[in-house]
Amino acid sequence: MTDSIRSLAGDFPSQSPDSWASLAEKALRGADFAETLGRSTVDGIERGPVFFNRPDAAHAVDSTPRDLFLPWGIRQTLVEATPETANVAALDDLMGGVSEIELRLDPSGAHGLKANEIDLLDAALKGVDLTLAPIHLDSVGGQGHHAHLLLTLFARRRIDGEAVSGGLGLHPVERAARQGIALDDQCFPKAAELTELAQAAFPNLKIFRCESAHMFEAGASEAQELAIMAASAVTYMRLMMETGLDANSAARAIEARMAADADIHLTIAKLRAARRIFARIAESFGATGEARRLTLHATTAGRMLSASDAWTNLIRNACAGFAAAAGGADAITVRPMTDAIGRPTRFARRVARNLHILLAEESHLGKVTDPAAGSYLHETLSDALANKAWALFQEIEHRGGLVEAFASGWLQGEIATSRAAYLTRIESGQTPILGVTQYKDPDPRPVETEGEWPDLDAAEEALTATRFAAGFESAKEAAQ
Predict the structure, then answer these.
(1) For 109-144, what is each residue's pLDDT tens digit?
(2) Cα dist. 323→281, 307, 331 in Å?
(3) Best label site of 167, 215, 237, 443, fewest CB within 10 Å?
(4) Which pLDDT belongs to residue 467?
(5) What is the Cα–Cα distance from 213 to 15, expressed in whole angstroms?
(6) Quick one: pLDDT at residue 41?
(7) Residue 59's pLDDT is what?
(8) At how many degrees (to 10) do helices 264-285 and 376-398 cross?
(9) Which DSSP letter does residue 369 get?
(10) Nearest to 204 by CA among 237, 160, 162
(11) Distance CA 335, CA 349 (A)
């Protein structure tokens, strides 16, 4: 069929935003147009109600075709405290459809696996083919030490370096920010040593992670998360290239982790904007071709999860997972519905990984390369977010880069402002939360966990903007 339906509109005059608004005002019968229909993000970006044009540059998003059998990496996070329980969970998840494992490593064992020795890490991954199931590290403390352990494990098992993927998950600046500590003066030199070691033996391994998702959890807006990702990418690109890596190798050694929440359209736009921003940064360093393509890991946001009625988190995770898939994430982590309460049970982990299968095989999201391409809504939001984030990124660079932006306290203040704006919207009812502020179950059913989380303030990290990077006074000197 070659006929076009566009000729059907040939006898109708083209419409403009003003003409549409005039008709809408008549239908509203005196109600304020902007207040009734207008919406904007915390960043001040208009969200409609309708869009009449598509920005010229918005289509400039990577559209690499997906693998129809595994359209994105199904990455599950293991938080079990002992190697034995972690190994059982890892094998269970892999047999259930998970394709990538993320190990949350905690020297205390409070919020993750306590594996400070090579034998303990080996035991946790017993029976796991490390060439088929990529391993990614998320270290609460001791990132450099844990990275060395993983590289040593690869060598112990005599694995072909070319066959190894996964990632060391190094993010020293973001780690110090989220824990409220100062950067050690040996932090960057150690990271440079790990870069040289990993690139020499395991060239396909991701070394650094732009961990902007943690800033989102603390209250950052979408544009702020994007800007922090950009500043983080620049920081680690510079560090790697100082060790002798070329721009292409450095760009390929970076992975970005961003949060996906229940706001489907805004999440899709944010992930699309992230690719445009990274491509521009990589090009500025001299990267070419596929090296300019961002490796993007999306994780469902923790800040949207309810502790009072965990069952409603199934809906939020479904929305966020859909947005991550439609936004083009290379790997997706769906948090267990009990994540706001404690360690997940086998059932909670199974439900989380099954959501991937529903999205890919029943909703067929994996068969579409870029579902949002051509949508005026998503193209416009992507363009607006990219421009807003780029301006903020330039401000961060003007202030001396990501480390100095944290050290001065300026970036914490910007995040705190966004966090306060979010809370105001929730408290006023402008942003309802299903099962929490709207349609609340007076008698919610309890959800089982494998034990509640210890106090975050004492054990892991401060997910509040006021405690972000509390010890960054000496960070600038540490980075020099």
Answers:
(1) 888 999 999 999 999 999 999 999 999 999 988 899
(2) 24, 22, 13
(3) 443
(4) 33
(5) 40
(6) 92
(7) 54
(8) 50
(9) S
(10) 162
(11) 8
pLDDT confidence of 375, banded at 50, 70, 90?
confident
In a 10 Å sphere around its CB, with 0-12 CB exposed, 13-18 middle and 19+ buried, how is residue 102 labelled?
A: buried
Q: What is the pTM (predicted TM-score) of this model?
A: 0.90
Alpha helices in 429-479 (DSSP H): 456-459, 475-479
The residue behind tokens 């732009």 is 210
Burial of 346 (0-12, 13-18, 19+ CB in 10 A): middle
Token pair of 21, please? 């608004």
Tokens coding 2: 């070659």
Query: For 431-447, what is the mean pLDDT?
Result: 82
Centre a 10 Å sphere on the Cβ of residue 84 and count the other Cβ atoms it contains. Answer: 13
Q: How many CB atoms lie within 10 A of CB 1?
A: 3
- Is the C-alpha dihedral spanning 473, 206, 219, 58 positive or negative? positive
Place of tokens 């060391």: 168
291: amino acid identity, one letter: A
What does R_g of the chain's alpha carbons equal in angstroms? 23
Residue length of the chain: 480
At 260-313, the pLDDT tens digits run 999 999 999 999 999 999 999 999 999 999 999 999 999 999 999 988 889 999
Rounded CA-CA distance 255/116 in Å is 24
Phi, psi of 75 (to 5 degrees): -105, 125
Cα-based distances in Å from 348 to 82, 84, 343 = 19, 19, 9
In terms of DSSP bridges, do strands 135-139 and 73-78 run parallel, antiparallel, or are they unpaired? unpaired
Please, what is the end-to-end C-alpha distance for the chain in angstroms?
64
Percentages helix, strand, coil for the chain, rounded to the nearest 5?
A: 50, 10, 40
Question: Hey, is 18 helix, strand or coil?
Answer: helix
Q: What is the pLDDT of residue 5?
A: 54
In order of 170, 194, 200, 205, 241, the CA distances from 161 in angstroms are 19, 15, 9, 9, 21
Cα(16)–Cα(82) distance, integer angstroms: 62
Please state, rounded to an integer, the average pLDDT across all residues of the chain. Answer: 87
- Amino acid (one-letter) located at 322: F
Sort residue 12 into left (φ over 0), alpha (ψ -120 to 50) or beta: beta
Token pair for residue 5? 């339906």
Residue 248 is predicted with a pLDDT of: 97
Supply φ then ψ for residue 2, to 5 degrees. Answer: -110, -10
As a whole number of angstroms, the distance between CA 467 and CA 178 comes to 8
Which residue did the predictor score with more confidence, 245 or 69?
Answer: 245
Residue type for position 319: C
Q: Is the separation of the CB atoms in 86 and 80 below 8 Å?
A: yes
